[in-house]
Specification:
74 residues; elongated; single chain; 2 helices; mainly alpha
Amino acid sequence: MIHIDRMSIQLPNGFEKRGHNIARLVGEYLQDVKATKTAAIDVLSVSGISASQNDSDESIANNIAESIIQQSIG
């Protein structure tokens, strides 16, 4: 499991009503990760992820979670 104390997500205009659900889904995806290493990371920035209005919240959240996984335990 990856434990995050605090998460802030900045999404493009038009995603205001979807942010809470996307953040919740990111947390759920990270909760299911089987991590074998221990690490403490003060700040982690996820960039380079594109999202369009047609993308599902699940797809966006999965992309964010995968980026976090790769940077933290990858």
